[in-house]
Amino acid sequence: MKARLIAGFAFAVTLLVCARAQTEAPPPSAKPVVWPTDVRIEHDVAYLPEGRTEKADLYFPIDPPKGRLLPVVVIIHGGGFNDGDKGRPREINIGQTLARHGYVGMSINYKLAKEKGVATWPQPVYDAKASVRWLRLNAARLGLDPDRIAVIGCSAGGNLAAMLALTGPADEFDSASPYPEVSAAVRCAIDFYGVVELLDYHDMKMFAKTRAEAPELYRRGSPNRYADAKDAPMLIVHGTADGTVKVSHSEVLAAALAKAGVEHQLVLIPGAPHTFDLQPKERDLRPLVLEFLDKHMGSASSGR
Fold this sequence. Notes:
CATH topology: Rossmann fold
Number of helices: 8
CATH class: Alpha Beta
CATH superfamily: Alpha/Beta hydrolase fold, catalytic domain
CATH architecture: 3-Layer(aba) Sandwich
Distance between the termini: 86 Å
Strand order of the largest sheet: 1-2-4-3-5-6-7-8
Structural class: alpha/beta
Largest sheet: 8 strands, mixed
Number of strands: 8
Radius of gyration: 22 Å
């Protein structure tokens, strides 16, 4: 009898330990972050006012050229304005690529919509503009060229990258941003499969209203509606097999830029789905992106 009680107790303890292990184990999709060692990274840099928890990661070349100011590219993650992070594999891939080729990358977190019914837009736009302003304010300390700032964003980040390129003070996104006296203009922008025409998308948590309730709000969040002849050049990249953001979003943006006379390039990647970095299996996009940046920012290795 005593032996049976001991065996039963041991079995119960085993079940409890297994259950706890299953509860505490990370989900199968959660993989440890692998940070590159061939570039220098400053993690969790505060670029927003005190009290904001969103930070940035800065990617630097290991051995930058002496006596030259470095061009810099803001990296804006995707995630539907509800999710995502500056340290996801895609953003690391972009930051590493930039730093290995003489650029500084600034991968930012920004305000996300976490609660239903609580509007967070246009704070993501303010945050994106704040990142550019912060770079200009800190350019001398970091060895950056304040006149050579670009932006790249993916999915929701593509929307914000386009908003940086296409909106200015007259569009009333600047006064609420920190450091409003500093320019948030960018030299050029890269939009990877960005959601652009928000009325042709779905109802979005960040607005806390449906498209039927507030169509003007969705129009205001659509960057294609701000294009004019003074806007920065833009590279637009989209996969033809994208089942999340239709290719038509990038086509609508390209058409708006063409109508306004803005220099741009639309590159469709046959068979590519939604969400890829600079090295999808369909095509290595690093030469395309770096050539575009070098053209509009001046080669990173040669200075201005």
